[in-house]
Amino acid sequence: MSGEAHGQQGQCLCGAVRFDALIAKQEFSACHCSMCRRWTGGVFLAVECESVELNERAPLGVYTSSEWGERCFCMACGTTVMWRSKDGAHSAVSLQAFDNPSEFTFASQIFVDEKPSSYSFSNTTRNMTGPEFIAMVTAGAQQ
User: Fold this and answer.
1) Is pLDDT above 80 for 89?
2) Ramachandran angles phi, psi of 118, nearest 5°
3) Is the Cβ–Cβ distance between 101 and 94 less than 8 Å?
């Protein structure tokens, strides 16, 4: 990633899960995969983070949703917190969990091949299909 990384803070709805995230780009993406849509009740809008530090006693629930990914949520209030790869190489934190979500720009969409026809974004973004995204996040595991 290019540029200097910046720290951002955020939390779940009840505040039991608080985090400090190191991000390289002030951008977010939308995931249209069927699992994210069921998990969030809509499109998962997330910020790719270089690292995420949670408060020490965060009641973080972890659900293994595939052989390569996990979904994390607050066990107290149910807030969607983040998706992360099992190998720790990728963490995508929910845009709305950040203290200042309006500081981020809509830049990309993944799993565009699974997006229902019932909605559409007018923003111009980089787009990636599900197989393209899976290849990207599992590349390190296959070496």
Assistant:
1) yes
2) -80, -10
3) no
Nearest one of 49, 48, 45 to 32, comparing CA atoms:
45
Instruction: Quote the pTM value.
Output: 0.88
Q: In sequence order, what are the beta bridge partners of 71?
A: 63, 83
What confidence tens digit (pLDDT) does each residue in 63-82 have?
999 998 999 999 999 999 99
Residue 103, token pair as written in the block = 């500081």
Backbone angles phi, psi at 101, to 5 degrees: -65, -20
Q: Where are the domains of the chain?
A: 6-138
Rounded to whole angstroms, the Cα distance separating 96 from 80 reads: 9
Q: Whole-angstrom distance between the N-terminal and C-terminal Cα of the chain?
A: 21
Asked: is 6-138 a CATH 3.40.190.10 domain? The reply is no
- What single DSSP character describes residue 75? T
